[in-house]
Specification:
By secondary structure, the protein is of the alpha/beta class. The chain is built from 10 helices and 15 strands. Helix content is 26%, strand content 28%. The strands form 3 sheets. Strands 3, 4, 5, 6, 7, 14 and 15 form a 7-stranded mixed β-sheet that branches. A 6-stranded parallel β-sheet has the order 10-9-8-11-12-13.
Length: 320
């Protein structure tokens, strides 16, 4: 029997994390898959690092929200190097370092050695960041950007309240709101107050010690990444005409808002938004906080850690 050159095998296959049934972190397994090839308008990215987000483990648990393929591969946030470009791509060339959140909310398979993405779902990686740091950015930073800039149009002097201000989306939201000239108030546990202030918050409220609605008022924009009763209670702190943006899901938008605008925002792939985020990074106005770096093969452990809800900033998988 003729043997197969292992170097050729490496070229045509890749390691990827897949989920074969909905359930706990133990359903995540590493599989050997065919390496994808870029089509029209697409690029093939050799992934160096992959970000981990709450939507990853929430969809792993139930399969909700995401349009899955026949063999569900997990993850969206990636940072890596362009390996090949498909026909019609003019913005990238092989060797370019890129980061992004391809295809969301459709399946992307970012927990893998390679991923194919529409070229304009990516942007040049900020030169000042490592791939691990850049992989922490896309989904969470784009969520904060699209909520605060594209949707709320936060302006200088406005009062912005960010819930879970030390979390994945929250720590970016504090920095983005501050870069826009806002007066920023964050909620966080007491142990994280110094960190949140270092990100630019003007006030920090210990949500475990007091009710935030008793401590703050006259807010222009609330960014709520928690949902549930937090969204309803947030209505009390908004001024007339203020805006509540909730992230967990449309079911967390209060039915009765009492004269303020309340809406759900779902992040979208956004080449221009990524470039704006990269510009903030390069100007020193935005920095990703990486809580833990875990090897790709231990993706299940990354989900276990994330589901505990105690991380500060982001969990990232190291692929190379």
């Amino acid at each position: 029997m003729q043997s197969i050159d292992s170097s050729i095998l490496w070229e045509i296959t890749m390691r990827a994390v897949v989920v074969n049934q909905w359930g706990g972190p133990e359903t995540l397994t590493v599989a050997e898959l065919d390496r994808p090839e870029p089509g029209l308008g697409e690029v093939l990215v050799r992934v160096h690092a992959a970000g981990v987000n709450p939507v990853d483990w929430k969809t792993r648990a139930s399969g909700a929200l995401i349009e899955w393929g026949p063999l569900p591969a997990v993850g969206w946030d990636v940072s890596g190097t362009v390996e090949a470009v498909g026909p019609g791509v003019g913005v990238f060339s092989p060797g370019d370092e890129v980061f992004g959140m391809p295809l969301f909310p459709r399946q992307a398979g970012g927990y893998a050695e390679y991923v194919v993405a529409p070229a304009r779902h990516l942007a040049p990686k900020p030169a000042s960041l490592t791939h691990v740091e850049a992989a922490a950015l896309p989904l969470a930073a784009l969520t904060a950007w699209q909520a605060l800039v594209d949707t709320a149009d936060v302006r200088p002097g406005q009062r912005v309240l960010v819930h879970a201000a030390a979390g994945g989306v929250g720590h970016f939201a504090v920095q983005i709101a501050k870069a826009r000239g806002a007066y920023v108030i964050g909620t966080a546990s007491a142990a994280k107050h110094d960190l949140v202030r270092s990100l630019g918050a003007d006030e920090v409220i210990d949500y475990r010690a007091v009710r935030f609605e008793d401590e703050v008022s006259d807010v222009d924009v609330v960014l709520d990444g928690l949902g549930g009763e937090t969204a309803q209670r947030s209505l009390k702190v908004l001024r007339a005409g203020g805006r509540l943006i909730t992230l967990p899901g449309p079911g967390d938008v209060p039915a009765e808002t009492g004269g303020v605008l309340a809406q759900w925002v779902l992040v979208e792939p956004d080449h221009l938004g990524l470039r704006e985020i990269a510009a903030l990074v390069q100007r020193g106005e935005l920095k990703p906080l990486v809580d833990t770096v875990i090897p790709l093969a231990e993706a299940a452990r990354a989900h276990e850690l994330g589901e505990q809800g105690r991380t500060t900033g982001k969990i990232v998988l190291s692929v190379l």
